[in-house]
Amino acid sequence: MIIDIHTHTFPDAIAYKTIASMEEDIVRGQGIHVKCARIPTVKGLEDSTKKADIDLSVVCPVATNIRQPEKINRLSVELNEKREETRLFNFGAIHPDCENYKQIIDEIVAMDLKAIKIHPDYQNTFFDDEKYIRLMDYAAEKDLGIIVHAGEDVGLPETVHCTPERILNLWKHIQPEKLILAHMGGWKMWDEVEEKLLGLPFYLDTAVVLNPIFPFKLENEQFVRMVRKHGADRILFGTDSPWYDQTKAVNDFNNTDLTQEEKDKIFGKNANDLFDFFG
Ligand SMILES: [Zn+2]
Questions:
Q1: 99 CA to middle of ligand 1, Å?
Q2: pLDDT of residue 78
Q3: Given 76, 103, 147, 205, which residue has the most CB atoms within 10 angstroms?
Q4: What's the structural domain count of the chain?
Q5: Residue range 50-95, pLDDT digits in tens
Q6: Can you state the angle between helices 164-173 and 130-141, rounded to 10 degrees?
Q7: C-alpha of residue 147 to centroid of ligand 1, in Å
Q8: Residue 60 C-alpha to ligand 1 middle, in angstroms?
Q9: What per-residue confidence (pLDDT) applies to 35?
Q10: Residue 268 counted as domain residue
Q11: Its GO biological process terms (predicted)?
Q12: Do the beta carbons of residue 53 and residue 2 sit within 8 Å?
């Protein structure tokens, strides 16, 4: 079973425009040209998921202002109704500036969206800010998962809002049970992640970290060492599609030196244990 815990889709009307501007941000941020690896719409992800033989792609929607969550979450429910056919599941969205965060979280729970995605860089808020602490505390109380972008963002490298230090600081206040730090705990900050974070009881996803298109990928040796140091039970397979071709991501992960048992856990078992996607 393969579950891709970290993917993105963009609304049909603005998908190409959004991707073009993100690609420009990557050139500005990293000095490299990275092309998005599939058609960026919902249909594009559905086709890519089936081609890669992935059982479920989980979409992590990011709200960039306080007006978006309600709309995004309603759409997530609609899309989740077609899950059997599309193999896509959408998490919920929330913004740290939402003063009605409790109400939004209650709705997300009622809509069975299973988790919320937060992105400190796109939401312009540090991860250990009181606004995140209060909403994550409430989400955890309601047994929701929380997936957070961690480390540098390819397009917004100037200020990193979710560093290992800030994660540690947040951890002093709250310890959500279902917290997933994307990109193996911090994109481009893996040495610091290794030194400070590994072994603490949160989950890490593998989104984009093995993608050889980026000059800053995790090498096999460090990747395997990090997985074992942290524990293969707490690592989830993710791609960050469309920023990594899903078929290639499955192959690249299969080509690491992890054992088959470790790969099976990471590919799907851990995510299913956490969120019960397939019962
Ligand atoms: Zn992402």
A1: 25
A2: 98
A3: 205
A4: 1
A5: 999 999 999 999 999 999 999 999 999 999 999 999 999 999 999 9
A6: 60
A7: 10
A8: 7
A9: 87
A10: yes
A11: secondary metabolic process
A12: yes
Percent of the chain with pLDDT over 90: 89
Query: Is the residue at 174 inside a domain?
Result: yes
What is the Å distance from ligand 1's center to 105 Cα? Answer: 21
Note the pLDDT tens digit of each residue in 243-260.
999 999 999 999 999 999
* Interval between CA 207 and ligand 1 midpoint (Å): 7
Strands (E), 15-137: 56-59, 88-90, 92-93, 115-118
5 by DSSP, 3-state: which? Answer: strand
Q: What CATH code is carried by the domain that includes residue 159?
A: 3.20.20.140
Q: How far is the CA of 10 from the centre of ligand 1 (A)?
A: 12
Q: Which residue has the tokens 């049909």?
A: 12
Give the separation between CA 24 and CA 34, rounded to whole angstroms: 9
Query: What local confidence, expressed as pLDDT, does residue 215 receive?
Result: 81
Report CA(8)–ligand 1 centroid distance (Å): 7
pLDDT per residue as tens digits for the range 151-201? 998 888 889 999 999 999 999 999 999 999 999 999 999 999 999 999 999
pLDDT at 154: 85
Residue 121's domain comprises 60-82+91-236+244-274
Ligand 1 centroid, distance to 116 Cα (angstroms): 13
Q: Could you tell me if residue 3 is inside a domain? A: no
Residue 183's pLDDT is: 98
Note whether residue 270 is domain-resident: yes
